[in-house]
Design goal:
15% of the residues lie in helices and 38% in strands. With 200 residues, the protein is α+β, with helices and mostly antiparallel strands. The strands form 2 sheets. It has a 6-stranded antiparallel β-barrel with strand order 1-2-5-4-3-12. A hairpin with a 2-residue loop joins strand 3 and strand 4. The longest helix is centred in the first third of the chain and has 12 residues. The radius of gyration is 17 Å and the shape is globular.
Length: 200
């Protein structure tokens, strides 16, 4: 009941969301990235690539779906890429992960500038670009800023807001304003005119 109340609060704060609550019903103990199965599928309106969250933040996305069950690939997976922004300095980057980081339960905010001011304690949220995740969902908190050992770029280590391997109840956002809208569409003249007239 407490979880449901929190989901309803999230819905009330985001009127464009169409959420479906679901329970985790299966896990692969051998999967390093915490992939899991939930008890809702297409009968409930869930589709491929729908974002999966809790009241605390982002969990992942629907990677396989059937009538009554769905498979969720988590933010710890190298397959997951999330366009994100630092709420303190508004610097943008891409949230990703690799085996080494996943083993430490950490994410990477990549492609930061050499003069980055991203620092420990900053909160990272989704910025909505790419059309997979709505804006302003919490991803995690910066642990430290690092210089890449492979090139001249910088990245930040981010502690996820939600422990994906411990979660039991989630919410799948089946529809939201801007869903499926790529950056190219968002910047196109036709998109600008439709946006001004109230369209997606």
């Amino acid at each position: 009941n407490a979880q449901l109340r929190k989901f309803l609060e999230l819905k009330s704060e985001n009127q464009d969301f169409k959420p479906v609550s679901a329970a985790v019903v299966g896990r692969d103990p051998g999967n390093l990235f915490g992939q899991f199965t939930i008890d809702q599928g297409t009968r409930s309106g869930i589709a491929l690539n729908d974002p999966v969250v809790t009241d605390a933040g982002v969990i992942g996305w629907v990677s396989t779906v059937s009538a009554d069950y769905s498979r969720v690939t988590t933010i710890l997976s190298p397959e997951t890429k999330i366009s994100a922004i630092d709420t303190v300095n508004r610097e943008t980057g891409v949230i990703g992960c690799d085996i080494e980081s996943a083993d430490k339960n950490l994410l990477k905010l990549q492609y930061l500038s050499s003069g980055t001011t991203v620092k420990a304690g900053d909160v990272i949220v989704t910025n909505g670009i790419g059309g997979v995740y709505p804006r302003n969902l919490i991803v995690g908190t910066v642990k430290s800023a690092q210089h890449s050992k492979y090139d001249v770029s910088f990245y930040a280590e981010v502690t996820p807001a939600v422990s994906v391997k411990d979660v039991h109840d989630v919410m799948v956002i089946t529809s939201f304003l801007g869903q499926g809208q790529t950056l190219e569409k968002a910047l196109s003249p036709s998109s600008s005119s439709s946006s001004s007239s109230g369209g997606k």
